[in-house]
Write a sequence for this structure.
């Protein structure tokens, strides 16, 4: 086979691989629909539930794509979501002001993200370790605030009537769409996204061309912070209360979602802004399908095993064209 | 480096930590280690921290992130607890049998994890996410999500936990074995070559795949020991962790890993992990002595701040020395 | 091209999810009539899948109640937060369930509102809403009610346990506050302090002590003043320092160790080894039976598995169109006390009397309150045990 033929084959395979996460999402969607219908359950309600479960993850993970594109890794985003929501609720309860609450949520989310970024870039600490420390600190402080103020109820809350008008699909779709489109534009149509991909793919080369690492790292963390703020706000819209365990699963699910959506964990030029959206909803769909199909208490363990195997299979296939002689790190 | 400098460098941090903590305790009229039983648990905890740190550093040092360490420790313990109870019904020799089985099961789980990594050739961080979910799922399925108690409560286990020399013996044996394996064998030389220059090492003919698999097997065996020590310490196993509930153990090993790495400059990094583990165990005992003054949240925050401060020092050492050193006229 | 295709497909998926889900959920109007023969489907919300008490409750519903009534129970996985609770209720609604029994407490307000929005009946299985929440929902027709230890009962259980050891002449004790600031554990610990004859920050009453414990996130030993019985150590939670703290107490050889939960699971082995008598507020399980027989567990205030029978009966009645309401039309609110055993014989009588096919709240007993039954009769039955 001549080189051109090999290249054609490679490109064909790459096209297939690139759309695989989307195909997986479509297939999972179809399976969920079929499963719910065959069991005689209410499909409209089920889809709404899945959307509600996926939207916070999709929003936070979409913001996180900017960090992951740089080849960095932030494990504190779940704790940031909890912390922002906590301070938002405290602010509302102190001032009775919804705009102020929203302002505090976003301010705190972006502030936490910036703090991680500054600690990492100014003091040259590995980003992952910084975010591990941030995770501990933010969850500890949030837990302290919640339990001190929650009293016998065990959590803090805002009046449900305050956010009920927003707890509808239209609002959530609008939030998701607007945020996603902004991220899409920044990531794919501005120099910010291009330079971040360059930095993630080859940091040494990128720096030698004059790209300022710190500047683009800070922008990435700010975008992630906005995603966290939106996630925290949407969490409060769905359930107007915060406990010490709120958003606890988001931190790790973001990683799973991004990778499930076909993005390499090492970031770089193969990063895709839609990975978080596709992967987030795919993961939620998969988990719901498995819970519908595998019943009983012990089934939760089994469904987690099946989910993990499916996850590894998708990641394996999406990475097929990037095998090297050496083991990946 | 002079021998005296090596000794001072190795012992400086533990001695300084001990001095500070002992002064703090004495000033408050408290005792860091108040009884023989406290000492037993001090040594036991030091063993847990040292071995977990070694397990984390083996793969992390080679750029392989492993979230599955905690899940491996718990699953190995559940399997060995069930089997040892089936064989001896909690009778004499149960602890020894369980320790041996823990090592075997841990090694096998590590082997499975490593085999998956080299077969799929996807980044180890992603493999480890899948493996964590799978091992947690298996544990949950075996235990039905319950605590495992009867199988691990017997005179043999109590005798083990009640004598400091058993964990001390384990520390000595593990330290000797790991130093031998990584510093005095062909495997260890290859490991270091791959660690410092993967591409060059592979090109010179070092077989990366077997080396990586052995690393996973050793990590698994070490986490098997950690699982056993945790059981000895708490006399139960929580079989109900799902959705990454087991990854916390990894984060506790970051601080000792960096401290150990620093101490290792003066002697040997494995010895450094032991020294760091002693520091962590002293800190833990001090937290226990001050438990009425320092809440669990405050402990998390202190640990996180220590981690960040130490890393700031570690990563800006040159700059700090420059600033602090007396300027020449 | 491929990017555009991927994007379009992704957005179509998300919009399809949204569009299909945007129609307003209808209430579950096909509730079974009393004698329709249709299986009543009940979803159970749980936040603990590992504890012995939770497992005992589950065995009673699944192995006894489900066999004796035309009812099907489905348990959730371990629900971590309010969002998970709400999603679980919505899923049960989508599957055509009739009622929700809740053992999860992240956000009970949202639980009830979600049940109401979806036409499901709702009951608190073990525990109580706080007073403000109960006032808010007591007239809600979907709220069946609550039967379980109220915060007053939790305080009293702790108080009785503390007083037992004070009366026994214990001079020194250690205390485990379990998972403070969990409200149940706060009130039990407040009760223990009061029962031992101690004051906390000058307060000796329930609200005075509990309020400060919430604020302090635990017991601040500098605020404790005791009389004849001294507290030599206190700790809470379960983490890296737990056993160091336990052994610091054991090293001082206290006359007793008082725990407000989970002592057998966490500490029985260590306390047995040191021959220190201990007490707990937990449940009547095989683990506690063994420790009581050994003589180390000397006091247990516990729930028994079938104590959750009456709330099932009330919920079944509501689903079948026979809601039990008080004279003002309000939901049930009955505080259920703990049974106490201080010797093996009493323990075994309770434990063995509530096993398998012969639970304390048996079918014969529950049948007396299933159907059209008065509020007073129902309360009498619950309070008779």
């Amino acid at each position: 086979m001549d080189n051109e033929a090999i290249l054609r084959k490679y490109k064909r395979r790459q096209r297939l691989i690139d759309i695989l996460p989307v195909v997986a999402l479509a297939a999972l969607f179809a399976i969920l629909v079929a499963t719910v219908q065959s069991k005689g359950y209410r499909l409209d309600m089920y889809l709404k539930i899945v959307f509600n479960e996926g939207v916070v993850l999709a929003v936070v993970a979409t913001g996180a794509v900017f960090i992951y594109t740089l080849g960095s890794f932030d494990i504190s985003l779940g704790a940031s979501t909890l912390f922002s929501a906590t301070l938002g609720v405290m602010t509302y309860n102190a001032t009775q002001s919804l705009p102020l609450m929203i302002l505090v949520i976003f301010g705190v989310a972006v502030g936490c993200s910036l703090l991680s970024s500054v600690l990492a870039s100014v003091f040259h600490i590995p980003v992952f370790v910084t975010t591990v420390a941030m995770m501990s600190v933010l969850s500890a402080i949030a837990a302290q605030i919640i339990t001190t103020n929650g009293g016998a109820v065990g959590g803090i809350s805002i009046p449900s009537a305050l956010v009920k008008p927003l707890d509808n699909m239209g609002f959530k779709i609008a939030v998701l769409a607007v945020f996603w489109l902004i991220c899409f534009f920044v990531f794919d149509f501005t120099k910010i996204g291009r330079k971040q991909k360059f930095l993630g793919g080859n940091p040494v080369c990128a720096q030698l061309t004059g790209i300022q690492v710190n500047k683009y790292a800070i922008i990435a963390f700010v975008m992630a912070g906005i995603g966290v703020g939106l996630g925290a706000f949407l969490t409060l819209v769905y359930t107007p209360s915060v406990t010490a365990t709120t958003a606890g699963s988001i931190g790790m699910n973001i990683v799973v979602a991004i990778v499930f959506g076909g993005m390499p964990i090492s970031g770089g030029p193969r990063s895709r802004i839609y990975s978080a959206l596709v992967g987030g909803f795919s993961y939620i769909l998969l988990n719901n399908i498995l819970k519908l199909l595998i019943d009983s208490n012990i089934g939760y363990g089994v469904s987690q095993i099946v989910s993990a195997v499916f996850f590894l299979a998708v990641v394996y296939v999406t990475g097929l064209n990037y095998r090297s002689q050496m083991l990946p790190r | 480096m002079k021998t005296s400098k090596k000794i001072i460098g190795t012992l400086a941090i533990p001695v300084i930590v001990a001095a500070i903590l002992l002064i703090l305790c004495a000033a408050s009229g408290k005792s860091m280690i108040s009884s023989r039983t406290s000492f037993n648990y001090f040594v036991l905890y030091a063993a847990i921290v040292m071995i977990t740190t070694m397990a984390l550093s083996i793969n992390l040092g080679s750029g392989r992130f492993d979230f599955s360490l905690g899940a491996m420790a718990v699953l190995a313990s559940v399997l060995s607890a069930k089997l040892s109870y089936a064989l001896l019904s909690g009778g004499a020799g149960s602890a020894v049998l369980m320790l041996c089985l823990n090592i075997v099961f841990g090694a096998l789980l590590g082997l499975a994890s490593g085999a998956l990594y080299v077969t799929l050739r996807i980044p180890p961080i992603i493999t480890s996410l899948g493996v964590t979910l799978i091992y947690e799922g298996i544990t949950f399925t075996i235990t039905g999500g319950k605590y495992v108690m009867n199988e691990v409560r017997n005179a043999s286990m109590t005798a083990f936990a009640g004598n400091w020399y058993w964990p001390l013996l384990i520390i000595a044996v593990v330290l000797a074995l790991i130093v031998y394996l990584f510093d005095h064998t062909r495997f260890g030389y290859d490991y270091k070559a791959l660690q410092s220059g993967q591409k060059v090492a592979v090109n010179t003919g070092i077989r990366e795949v077997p080396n990586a698999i052995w690393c996973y097997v050793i990590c698994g065996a070490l986490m098997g020991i950690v699982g056993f020590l945790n059981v000895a310490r708490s006399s139960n196993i929580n079989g109900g962790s799902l959705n990454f509930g087991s990854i916390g153990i990894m984060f506790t090993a970051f601080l000792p890993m960096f401290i150990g790495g620093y101490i290792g400059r003066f002697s040997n990094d494995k010895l450094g992990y032991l020294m760091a583990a002693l520091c962590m165990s002293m800190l833990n005992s001090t937290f226990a002595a001050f438990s009425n003054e320092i809440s669990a949240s405050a402990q998390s925050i202190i640990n996180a701040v220590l981690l960040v401060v130490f890393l700031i020092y570690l990563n800006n050492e040159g700059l700090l020395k420059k600033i602090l050193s007396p300027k020449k006229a | 091209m491929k990017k555009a295709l991927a994007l379009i497909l992704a957005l179509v998926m998300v919009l399809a999810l949204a569009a299909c889900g945007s129609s307003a959920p209808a209430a579950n109007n096909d509730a079974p009539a009393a004698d329709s023969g249709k299986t009543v489907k009940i979803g159970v919300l749980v936040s603990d899948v590992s504890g012995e008490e939770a497992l005992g409750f589950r065995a009673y519903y699944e192995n006894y109640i489900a066999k004796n009534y035309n009812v099907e129970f489905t348990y959730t996985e371990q629900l971590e937060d309010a969002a998970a609770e709400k999603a679980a209720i919505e899923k049960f609604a989508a599957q055509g369930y009739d009622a929700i029994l809740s053992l999860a407490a992240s956000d009970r307000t949202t639980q009830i509102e979600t049940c109401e929005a979806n036409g499901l009946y709702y009951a608190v299985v073990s525990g109580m809403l706080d007073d403000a929440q109960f006032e808010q929902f007591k007239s809600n027709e979907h709220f069946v009610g609550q039967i379980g230890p109220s915060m007053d009962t939790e305080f009293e259980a702790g108080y009785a346990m503390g007083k037992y050891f004070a009366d026994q002449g214990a001079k020194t004790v250690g205390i485990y506050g379990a998972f403070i600031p969990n409200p149940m554990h706060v009130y039990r610990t407040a009760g223990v302090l009061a029962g031992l004859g101690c004051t906390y920050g000058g307060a000796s009453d329930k609200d005075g002590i509990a309020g400060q414990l919430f604020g302090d996130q635990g017991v601040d030993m500098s605020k404790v003043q005791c009389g004849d019985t001294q507290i030599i150590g206190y700790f809470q939670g379960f983490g890296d320092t737990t056993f160091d703290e336990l052994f610091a107490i054991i090293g001082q050889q206290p006359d007793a160790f008082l725990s407000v939960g989970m002592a057998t699971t966490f500490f029985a082995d260590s306390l047995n080894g040191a021959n220190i008598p201990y007490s707990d507020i937990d449940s009547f399980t095989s683990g506690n039976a063994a420790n009581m027989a050994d003589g180390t567990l000397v006091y247990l205030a516990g729930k028994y598995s079938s104590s959750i029978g009456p709330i099932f009966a009330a919920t079944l009645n509501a689903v079948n169109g026979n809601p039990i309401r008080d004279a003002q039309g309000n939901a049930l609110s009955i505080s259920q006390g703990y049974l106490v055993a201080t010797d093996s014989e009493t323990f075994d009588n309770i434990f063995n009397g509530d096993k398998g096919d012969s639970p304390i709240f048996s079918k014969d007993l529950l049948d007396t309150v299933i159907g059209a039954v008065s509020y007073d009769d129902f309360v009498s039955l619950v309070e008779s045990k």
Notes: Residues 188 and 252 of chain B are 26 Å apart (CA to CA). The longest helix of chain B spans residues 94-120. The radius of gyration of chain B is 21 Å. The beta strands of chain B are 147-148, 237-238.
